[in-house]
Amino acid sequence: MTVALTGSMLIGADDVRGSAGEVRGVNPATGEALEPSYGLGDPADVDRAVALAWQAFPAYRATSLKSRSAFMTTVADNIDALGDTLVDRVVAETGIPGPRVRGELARTCNQLRLFASVVADGRWLGARLDTPDPDRTPLPKPDLRQRKVPLGPVAVFSASNFPLAFSVAGGDTASALAAGAPVVVKAHSAHPGTSELVGRAIQAAVAEHGLPEGTFSLLFGDGRTLGTALVKHPRIAAVGFTGSRSGGLALVAASASRPVPIPVYAEMSSVNPVILLPGVLAESGAALGTEFVTSLTTSAGQLCTNPGLVFALGDADDFITAAGAAVAAAPGAAMLNTNIQQSYVDGVDRLAGAAGVTEVAEGAVDATIRACGQARLFATDGDTFLADHALQDEVFGAASLVVRVADLAQLERILDTLDGQLTATVHAAGSDQETAAALLPRLELLAGRVLFGGWPTGVEVGHAVVHGGPFPATSNPATTSVGTLAIERWLRPVSYQNVPDALLPDELREDNPLGVPRLRDGTAE
Which residues are CB-neighbours of 58 under 8 A, at least 6 positions away? Predict the structure, then answer.
């Protein structure tokens, strides 16, 4: 499927050329500026997009489960049909290798289809019924029924490092559309062509299914102006964001300053600690070192689940030697853009200059790549780490710090000082089980996903996954941005007391015409 890029925003059914400046995609490997240029929007464009979303809200949230599910399936089919046109544009704008792009494309479309199945099932509606008892004393028991309804139009901010899976049709958009909420997306300026291609796939699906045009809009613009205007718009009911801590906190502050604050679900920063226990270090330290660097250097380290901290409790010599050799052999790789590459350089320079930190190894630099990322590995001891809180700051890229920990008590002190994380990983041998069991209660308070074995990069999209965690990993630790539970962010419960059956929503009527799963008096019907 071929789609001509126009450089336009998509506001409802219309192509709109922004007039507040322009931006182009740039190939991070070559520095080539890509055509076309994209006009940036302003607060007036925000007003128009959000007004259309608000107008669309009553009709879109009232769509049947079957028709909404079919719409989301069509979105996935339309994106799939873009094929090489989309893959080639993503590669050109981000430097992400083609095979990874194809994997991310499959994940994005599968995620849309997963939410289509969630919508059709209806379990997300949370239908509950309490049987009335008019003869109860001293007061009659009322007829109570509950379901969940969408909050309203949602603003979604695309991520730089996942131009498909956390972008225009990514998890925030998919879960919000599943919940019955129209979506206004602020595209990421680093991949505007990718954003337009995916945006047109959604726009076409909206038209094909006869939905209100304001069900979806796509804007380009500066975060400080257009982004803030979007969050502060009185008709926006919630915000989804994936990106830097500074960007996420700016949106949280903008929301808090509104006359009516709204929830901001921001996935921000994480260093994803990995714990290596004595038994596993003795049994397979060298193998773990090599595996670790494979995870560390995936996508030039530009993953929110990248293992940026390793705590080694025991003899870590084999692990560090093997990891150092793997880092030294790692080729230079294109980072997403020059701004991210410069931030990475600044971060590793801070690590290299920190007292008590030594550099173990550095990877190659490819002079032919403009925004080249160079893998780096550092080491320190537990006392030094405890004395310098800055050593746990995220360095977004293929850099990690190995901390030699003196004993279990010191490891526990370190874990108690760590900021909230998306993930925490434990590698343990059979002889380490007792120690691992002692650490688990701390880890489940520290992170949203606790792994035993393996590495944190790679997030399975499913029903039981959590991609979230305590602050500053996210702005709201009670939620997830990946998996079917993500739909809960855009919903709120409503209780109906003594409402006549004929006036109730279908999922709460006595005959349950939708056939959705329900609880009656706390028991599944």
Answer: none
